[in-house]
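Honest question from a wet-lab person: if I give you the sequences of every part of a complex, can you actually get the arrangement of the whole thing, not just the pieces? Trying it with mine:
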Amino acid sequence: VDVGDRDQLVALLEPLHAADIADMLEQMNAYDRRRLVELYDKEFDGEILSELNEGVRDEIIQYLNPEVLKEAVRELDSDDVVDLVEYLEEPQQEAILEALEIADRVAVEQALTYPEESAGRLMQREVVAVPEFWTVGQTIDMMREREDLPEQFYHVILVDPKMRPVAHVTLGKLMASPRKTALSEITEPGFRTIPALQDEGDVAYAFNQYHIISAPVVDEDDRLVGVITIDDAMIVLDLEHEEDILRLAGVGEGSLNDRFTETVKQRLPWLAVNLCTAILSASVISLFEDAIAKVVALAVLMPIVASMGGNAGTQGLTVAVRAIATKDLTGANVWRVIRREAAVGVVNGLSFALIMGIIAFVWFGSPVLGAVIGAAMIVNLFVAAIAGTVVPVVLNWLKVDPALASGTFVTTVTDVVGFFSFLGFAVLVLL
Amino acid sequence: VDVGDRDQLVALLEPLHAADIADMLEQMNAYDRRRLVELYDKEFDGEILSELNEGVRDEIIQYLNPEVLKEAVRELDSDDVVDLVEYLEEPQQEAILEALEIADRVAVEQALTYPEESAGRLMQREVVAVPEFWTVGQTIDMMREREDLPEQFYHVILVDPKMRPVAHVTLGKLMASPRKTALSEITEPGFRTIPALQDEGDVAYAFNQYHIISAPVVDEDDRLVGVITIDDAMIVLDLEHEEDILRLAGVGEGSLNDRFTETVKQRLPWLAVNLCTAILSASVISLFEDAIAKVVALAVLMPIVASMGGNAGTQGLTVAVRAIATKDLTGANVWRVIRREAAVGVVNGLSFALIMGIIAFVWFGSPVLGAVIGAAMIVNLFVAAIAGTVVPVVLNWLKVDPALASGTFVTTVTDVVGFFSFLGFAVLVLL
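Yes, you can. This is the full assembly:
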């Protein structure tokens, strides 16, 4: 790129998969990226655009020669175009839609009428559907004649006269059966359809839970409108996990490629929430200023109690948040789980009460101080265990994403309880 | 189950998918689970066993009538049996292997010779491969005659005379082409093979990155030994995410179904590590006991500085750990990312220094105290930003899983720096 040798660049990038070129572009700095894109020019492939994350994609669309952009978009399947344009600004969206042939354009525009993150946005509209009474021979002949078969498909969908899917047949079964076999004799068990308005997270969950390879999407009247394949579901599953993991850490939707100001904007709100809860904890401490002034060792030891509670609570809440996401924690077993977590909290509390009690005794030469920190440790680890499970369950029940808000609540509880129990016991016993 | 009505139970469970029955079993308590399994008896399906998590699966295998178990296992594909037996104890493993037909048994035993979590364990051995010079017609005729076609397959693999895969053809293309077409004319672009010894996490990454549906697995001599399909890769991807998210929270391999003692065992080590780091932070505080005894407000405010640093560090490290896992953070962009994170740290530090400085001033009426906490906040958020990225990168470079150990390191750094900078500045300025 530095010497501006276009032929050499094309020769270098030629053997790479679009996803790898996209990753490379994401890892460059903006200046090199622009030069590379402008140099690559005509060779720029639509699939690279599909693979880029939003920030970099928006940037590159601006650099691209409009003719190259139009060409790039025309090569893509309708679901990839939807994915590409759905988060673009109006004028950019228009420019891309105009580049499409009229049939594709209508398909994309219809897909955009479904709500964001719904099955309707995720599906491809190219389907292979036949009347339910057809035979293997009829189906194979139809497929040999049809010219617009989808790039990838795994099932032939059987539909009734009202275009409602009733079953499907795998291509493998179709090939292995004699021509005169009725399709209805070789359908797959466990056939499922997906409502077009279903949330894409639930779609991905169903694919993973039931090992679905592809499933027809239906509208409110149960009519076939498209099909979702496992590769799209896998991408959604990956994104949902990413979201969960980032939310647990209080980072909204961060990625390494976000611009500086976006990153600051994503992180500030959570730090602000944390500041409020930290001030709350500090105000608990300020209730005990007199005690601390008399026994400074209290100030030294108090963060240990709070920190242990915070860690134990985070462990429990992470397991609970995951279990809620995978539907392993439900009304049926919530009480048993809470009881078990509470028991774990008591056992951990007793263990660390003993250890920390002895350490405090040796460190400050005061058996009473050892007893105080031990007692506070038991209380705080018990409360942490309960809060770690109850908080995410209650948030989920209130329809708040437990991954997003549990951490703050739980650590606030463990900080407040940790400081209050330790300093409170100290006042009762020492002063 | 309570009334012991077997017929009613069978009728109730009949329409459910094996994965849902497995989830239900996992959510029951051990006593009910045992009664249900014993009552269900002959109807117990091998697929339910495949869907259960390890703890519950081991338990149920013990309750099951040996005849029922044998019958259940015989229905499964070889890769599911491998999955079932690989973590069982020797005698149980033997019992299941003996139930298999000799050919299946050999297949399973061969799969078990591959290392745990390798592509060889994940693959199914049933493949559809044909000589590379065949035509569409020959292939379809072969498939109609073969009786042992895999349950699900998506490609016909073309192999050379030494059984080395050279390309593959989708079933869709196969059906849509005239009988006399040579297979070599309709092969898919982007064909990839997977080495049998490759780590299953890398396999899942490749499926997700390159949108692979199925790929042949080859041994060291590049000969075809099996095939991995996207549904297996999706399960691995799901498990890897689960592992990452739990490790970030310091829970080894927790699940809600682990027994009480296992849960305690998983969580104790991380709490113990945390205790050590908390004591380290406390010993930093103890250096400043005199200062705290004189100005108790220091004890009230110091956890705020540490807490803000811990949160900012966790945000940065989570983004970094994810980026390392998805190969978005590499040698190529690590310096740019660190510089950007440091800049974010400075901006966040300045914002919260101002806010917290004013709060401390108002709260304790001391402008100097406000300046001290502000300065400490800037230092700690800057250090947190650097540590949040550098720690996971260095751990990864040392081949330690960054998800597992980063959190502890980063919060230790932010606690120590937070307490030291705040109390240190206070000593310099106030005393």
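Two things worth pointing out. The longest helix of chain A spans residues 334-364. Chain A touches chain B through 114 residues (CB under 8 Å).
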